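User: I'll paste a sequence; please echo it back and then give the predicted structure.

Assistant: Echoing your sequence first, then the prediction.
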Amino acid sequence: MQRLSRTVIQLNMATQSHHVDADTPWLDLMVPNVSAHRYRMHLLRVYGFEAPLEAAFRYTPGLSAVVDLRSRMRSGLLAQDLMRLGMSASRLADVPQRFTTFSGPAEALGWMYVIERATLLHGGVRRYLLQHLRGAEDATSYLAAYDGAAGMRWSELGSAFDAVAPSPTVVRQLLRSADTGFRALCDWFRDDESITHAPT
């Protein structure tokens, strides 16, 4: 049985007030009349948030020493799914994005917790779309990225959290960063401007 990280437990408790707002955009895809357009617009929002975040992770000093970044880079799969849903590569390049930078591993891992937590929903959302959305089987590579490995990925991330947060001071920094990340994510999904003008 995989050990649940003590830091993950703290993160779960400290950010609980954000979980419903963060999960709702994914759960909103699980409706009987879900359309390809709705799914595409959702993936556009996710891409605009996660693609620049992945770049920020790669440039964060010391982060690659505590967590395997390559296995967590999924924006390429998002782009692939979007193109299979009808978006051209040139139009994808014009999608609005939310940029940020991090000073060190603890700050970056707080934001990584935010987007990695969403992967716990991906399997269920993918199964629903495969049953209710025609053509979804060709455009769910992002949702399938952790198929059969979600538990292992989460355990690895928990170990990274514990490694970078040996003291209460660093734990507090990690918790503050996760709170900031959740607020940014929820604001991004609420902001019509973040995607209204994106080419579709």
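The chain has nine helices and no strands. The longest helix spans residues 105-132.
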